[in-house]
Amino acid sequence: MTALRTLIERLTKVGEPSETVPAPESEVMTELRALRARIPQLTGSLVASADGLLVAHDLPPSVEPSGMAAVTASGLSLAHRIAQTAHGGAFHEVVIRGVDGYVVTYSSGPDASLTVLAGPGVNVGRLHLECRPAARAIADHLTATSTRSAVSPSGGRE
What is the secondary structure of 26-40 as a DSSP string? Predict the structure, then answer.
């Protein structure tokens, strides 16, 4: 009976995601935590979809994640429009310098963005050097996720 139960448990896990493959949210969170570790003046970060849905965040308690994701999407839409109108090209990033620091939004593929918050003393060049590759990596994680979810357990497209 135990052998039969073990066999049934193994067979029922066939269509479930592999336990060895990290979830996309955990991969994105790993990227966000790594950014904070590499840039001491970074005070927070988030990834939002183009329509304003929160994907992941590493924000301080003073910033409401869902609200920030919505505002980021709004700003991203405006940035796309400005870039298209001014130069006819694609959007890459927006830098906002405020009294208490920076808010920088990077394109993370066509459907998402990475937004980072940093203190006023941050080296903006270093911020770009660290965040641009992270934004590309996040886009890759999210693209891989959408590709995996579009493939059915039998290996065919749905």
Answer: HHHHHHHHHHHHH-T
